[in-house]
Design a protein that fits this description.
Layout (H helix, E strand, L loop, with lengths): L1 H29 L1 H23 L30 H37 L1 H16 L2 H11 L4 H12 L1 H14 L3 H8 L4 H37 L10 H10 L8 H33 L2
Helix pairs in contact: 1-8, 1-11, 2-3, 2-11, 3-4, 3-6, 3-7, 3-9, 4-7, 5-6, 6-9, 7-9, 8-9, 9-10, 9-11, 10-11
């Protein structure tokens, strides 16, 4: 009899998860904000994937006059070496997005693992892990970011490593708070009564219920990583020989693009960061609104 009730509780939980996912998906396509966010993200993803095929010139060789303003042959003009700025921008999109997505993935992996473990096991495990997280959260992030970047090898992988290490603590806090609430629900109790292992309960029952919240935080991690990487590159930290939006701004600063009135070299990367950030922010807000609406039903 008890086994029958446990099975019913587990089936109801799976049905609730599936129903919520369906309602959120339908609502997302009806939301103008999320549609805009998806469109912006899709545009930059396509640009990143097809960049090397659609870039009009090799960004590393001279293809026109020095400091040439936008024209038919160079839509974004050229830089101080006569290199095509549009080609720099298109090729750089892939690197910037790669850094953002990689940092978000590794940060989420660490943050979810720590938050899930701390929240579910509680007691001493929770105390030790959360005190460590608190210590990381009170350390000024940007100065530490600059110091680590100055001492580690100036590569894109080093930038990803540094940003990942510094970006996961907040995610772990969010996940932990969700776990503390979810682990008291009936479907978790039903899984315990059914003899399920702790790991199976954590990853089969609790984690699926947190996916929307995790996804929202991943979006914010992508935004933060792209902005942080661009900031590091602007100050000459990281791999300045890499082609990305940050190094575009770095070389524009070093070669006095503002003095040369070469606005076409400065505006594209800055505008792209702003538009992508806006699109991802609207996507995250749209998903958050859908979750709140879903919870109200």
């Amino acid at each position: 009899m008890n086994n029958g009730r446990v099975d019913i509780a587990l089936q109801e939980n799976n049905a609730i998860i599936a129903s919520r996912a369906k309602r959120v998906t339908v609502a997302l396509f009806k939301s103008k904000r999320t549609t805009f966010g998806v469109a912006v993200l899709a545009f930059f993803l396509i640009l990143a994937i097809l960049g090397r095929f659609i870039a009009p010139y090799n960004p590393l060789i001279q293809s026109g006059p020095l400091w040439s303003p936008p024209s038919e042959s160079h839509l974004f003009g050229t830089n101080y070496l006569g290199q095509d700025v549009l080609s720099w921008f298109i090729i750089g999109t892939a690197t910037s997005l790669w850094v953002g997505v990689s940092v978000a993935f590794f940060s989420a992996l660490i943050g979810v693992s720590v938050g899930l473990t701390a929240g579910y096991f509680g007691k001493y495990t929770d105390e030790v892990l959360m005190r460590f997280v608190d210590m990381l959260l009170v350390i000024p992030a940007f100065p530490l970011l600059v110091i680590l970047s100055a001492y580690l090898p100036p590569t894109t992988n080093s930038t990803i490593l540094i940003l990942s290490v510094l970006s996961w603590p907040f995610m772990s806090r969010v996940v932990r708070s969700q776990v503390l609430s979810l682990k008291e629900r009936g479907f978790v109790t039903a899984s315990k009564l059914a003899g399920e292992s702790r790991l199976k309960i954590m990853f089969k029952d609790i984690l699926p219920n947190m996916l929307p919240i995790i996804f929202i935080n991943i979006i914010y991690l992508v935004i933060g990583a792209i902005v942080a990487q661009a900031g590091l590159a602007f100050f000459g930290l990281g791999n300045i020989n890499s082609i990305n939006w940050g190094t575009m701004l770095y070389w524009a600063q070093i070669e006095d693009a503002a003095i040369q009135n070469a606005w076409w070299w400065i505006i594209p990367p800055g505008l792209a960061i702003g538009i992508l950030g806006l699109g991802l922010n609207m996507l995250a807000n749209g998903i958050s609104d859908m979750i709140l609406l879903n919870q109200g039903r």
